Amino acid sequence: MTAPRDPVWDAPGTRALLRAALQEDLGDGGDLTSRLTVGPRARARARLLARRAGVAAGLPLMAAVFRALDRRVRSRLLVRDGESFKPGAVLARFEGPARALLAGERVALNF
Asked: What is the model's pTM?
């Protein structure tokens, strides 16, 4: 499944929270390390891998973090909120501009 367009995740308050979290983490200068070490056209793939068993919650918010940084990032959520998973399960996959994936990683994982 792709990242859903859900009124909760796309609500103005949620978007404001995303902007504030990205501003806090990246500041006005963005991800300087990625800009200096990763080419502007570089693409990357990432996956969210569970270390322990759990119940999924908030994966659409992770997708929204990457989408806020670059609309070209594609998110594929493999579990739904409320769904249980086991250690080693791949919960989501992301693909797109490497700079956006690297810049959003900390914020997405914190959410």
From this structure: 0.82
